[in-house]
Design goal:
Strand content: 15-25%
Radius of gyration: 17 Å
Order of helices and strands: HHHEEEHEHEHHEHEHEHH
Distance between the termini: 43 Å
Amino acid sequence: MKKLLIALSSLILFGCTRTGLELANLPAKFSDTDIIQNVSYGEEPWQKLDIYIPKHSPEDTLPVVVFFYGGSWQDGSKDMYPFVGEGFAQHNYITVIADYSKYPQVVFPRFVDDGAKAVAWTYRNIANYSGNPDNLFISGHSAGAHIAGLITADQRYLQKEGLNTSIIKAFAGMSGPYDFVPREEIYKAIFGPEKNYPEMQVTTFIEGNEPPMLLLWGADDTLVGQSNMDLLASKIRQQHGQVTTKIYPNVDHVGMVSSFTWFFRGKAPVLEDICQFFSQHSS
């Protein structure tokens, strides 16, 4: 059974076969969550997002999560993550999952620009889908946590969209590479030249007035080191900002996001911890 769960977890993250994703996303096919697909948030063909709206009374307005998936800034698709939208919907959150440009089509910071554009679109339009723009949260896993973290910390991305980070109530990042220096050639190509490296590190932009941050990491993660979480949390605390950290034993890099699925939900309360954190910072 343990080997089966590990195999399913890998399938979810990497999308190696349809089987793992179909199993993960099975509940979404039979739920009463309303899914609106391929909404344009920009003019480029890849600038599309999906909206997951839980069943609710017509007079209700719901809190909103914009979620960014991982994939080493090279892979992934919003179509892989209905299980995330369904997970948040079960906690009464509208979820927006956006695609973004990737290497080798683009290099840093274009994918962060896409992320900021998706957040801006959500803030300006989600009321049309029963969402409350005054309760807007962002989250992400791995490279998606890095993108969301930069949008939260570096004012310039939302300023390009005529907004600022005050529209974000809180950020929750899972296994994010917030403070790393590219060593492998592929990451040098994505983030280089070397003089750019401080610009891609979330820690560079911490001043203490950022939205509250929840930083989560799995103790068995061998892809993204704990130092990324620790260095960002330390910088926030030095600047008297708001940060909460949590480490999950026996959870690896993939397991952080696969814990949202129905067959891994009991392994670690990642989804529940994120929703509780967001609830604490709701208007």
